[in-house]
User: Which sequence fits this backbone?
């Protein structure tokens, strides 16, 4: 934590010109970083400088910059989104660092995530898993009557906690096995807990699991790192529910589509 | 139907469930083995009689052993498959990787402690199972082995390794079965620590005891 208004840091940042490039680390000193700026703003300032010097700016994903969209995601000193608890890298501030720090910046790494350029990775396998079953097939019509389908308070709270997942994919990045279980389990949970989601529960869990495995994510070994790294602090109790839903579905379910 | 069953068992959660079921059976076996070992404190005659009685319980004895072997082989085979799949899931390692919380020494070393246990089990079987017990009874062979501090040290180290494997495995298998509850999970973790210590110390103390009385 820095008390200063500005600090000088050194970035050791991953540079990769495209998916086929083998990539390398580049060490870039960054002087006079405003400690009130966010981590991504620091990268913006650096990029402006790089452009003025006729150099390639560092590519990184971002959108809302307020921790709600899940577009950003970078490894900062070996932790997805940096070391702050329950925050995205767009919410990480430079005052968290000290003058003279060297910060290692890497893209999220997994076989399922292809690096597009520098720190920008293709996280579309997560979308594919959603397409495989992360929805309910009902005609929603107009706004339904609030209490037409009763839902217990604890259930709705838990479903909301699961739905807090912004799909940034930090769980995969942090997992020593590059497993996507926390993400998929949150998406399975948010439907499994609610009556509207029960109808397709069995096919959903099997289809999403099948897609998850097909995308090349690793297997969960219950390290619990994902839970600690998740910017929305999604709990691994959802992974346990995913496992339960799998058990239920394997007994009563049918083969997912595509086989 | 065939494809469905294959899909279930080859899926990542299916494999994990096989690990958990077989792991639980192996812990159950260790509990029985530990109970049996306590006969050694009753002396040579009691232990030798117990061993003879156990081996005379045919056909149950053979059926049990084949079952245990199968369970062990499934656990090892799937464990190895998971290990390589997980290695492959991140072909390029991080330059810097930090544990933001959660990972333990036990969880990090599961495949390695597993392989070391396998090596130990093979050695242990060669030492005490596949030997001629008609001339020198098993208690006397055991006592002779553990009169040597080298063997005692080796067994104690092996039990520490088993303890680390269980320190993660016990809690982990409940999670894999889908049992995770804000109230009970901390209890399960504490129980896991107790099981770890009972198994580690319980098995480790016998060679030390035999060395002392030798
Ligand atoms: C013989 C050699 C052994 C090997 C190679 C081995 C390997 C492994 C591996 C790699 C895992 C992690 C699997 C995963 O997290 O998905 C594991 C889990 C486990 N092992 Fe072993 N193991 C061996 C022996 C044992 C023994 C003797 C026991 C019994 C005490 C045991 C109990 C467990 C348990 C309870 C788990 C947790 C299952 C889960 O997370 O669902 N293992 N083993
Ligand atoms: S940019 Fe939207 S969460 Fe960070």
Assistant:
């Amino acid at each position: 934590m820095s008390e200063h208004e500005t600090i000088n840091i050194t970035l050791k940042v991953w540079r990769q010109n495209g998916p086929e490039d083998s990539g390398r680390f580049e060490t870039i000193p960054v002087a006079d970083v405003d400690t009130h700026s966010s981590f991504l703003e620091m990268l913006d300032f650096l990029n402006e400088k790089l452009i003025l010097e006729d150099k390639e700016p560092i590519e990184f994903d971002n959108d809302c910059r307020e921790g709600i969209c899940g577009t950003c995601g970078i490894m900062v000193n070996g932790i997805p989104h940096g070391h702050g608890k329950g925050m995205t890298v767009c919410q990480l501030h430079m005052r968290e660092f000290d003058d003279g720090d060297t910060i290692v910046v890497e893209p999220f790494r997994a076989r399922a995530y292809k690096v597009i350029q520098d720190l920008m990775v293709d996280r579309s396998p997560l979308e594919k898993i959603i397409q495989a079953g992360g929805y309910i097939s009902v005609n929603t019509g107009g706004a339904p009557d609030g209490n037409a389908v009763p839902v217990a308070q604890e259930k709705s709270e838990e479903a909301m906690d699961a739905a807090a997942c912004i799909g940034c994919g930090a769980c995969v990045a942090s997992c020593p096995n590059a497993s996507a279980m926390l993400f998929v389990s949150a998406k399975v949970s948010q439907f499994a807990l609610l009556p509207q989601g029960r109808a397709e529960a069995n096919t959903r869990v099997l289809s999403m699991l099948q897609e998850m495995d097909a995308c090349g994510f690793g297997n969960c070994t219950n390290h619990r790192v994902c839970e600690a790294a998740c910017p929305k602090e999604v709990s691994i109790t959802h992974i346990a529910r995913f496992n339960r839903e799998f058990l239920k579905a394997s007994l009563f379910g049918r083969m997912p589509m595509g086989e | 139907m065939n494809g469905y069953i294959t899909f279930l068992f080859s899926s990542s959660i299916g494999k994990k469930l096989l690990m958990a079921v077989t792991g639980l059976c192996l812990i159950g076996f260790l509990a029985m083995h530990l109970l049996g070992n306590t006969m050694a404190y009753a002396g040579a005659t009691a232990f030798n009689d117990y061993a003879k009685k156990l081996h005379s319980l045919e056909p149950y004895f053979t059926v049990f052993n084949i079952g245990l072997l199968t369970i062990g082989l499934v656990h090892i085979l799937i464990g190895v498959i998971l290990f390589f799949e997980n290695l492959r899931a991140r072909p390029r390692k991080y330059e810097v990787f930090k544990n933001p919380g959660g990972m333990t020494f036990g969880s990090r070393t599961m495949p390695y402690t597993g392989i070391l246990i396998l090596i130990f089990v093979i050695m242990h079987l060669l030492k005490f199972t596949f030997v001629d017990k008609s001339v020198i009874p098993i208690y006397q062979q055991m006592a002779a082995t553990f009169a040597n501090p080298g063997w005692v040290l080796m067994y104690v180290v092996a039990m520490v390794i088993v303890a680390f494997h269980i320190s993660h495995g016990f809690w982990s298998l409940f999670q894999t079965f889908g049992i995770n509850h804000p109230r009970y999970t901390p209890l399960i973790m504490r129980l896991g620590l107790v099981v770890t210590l009972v198994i580690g110390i319980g098995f480790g103390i016998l060679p030390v005891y035999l060395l002392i009385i030798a």
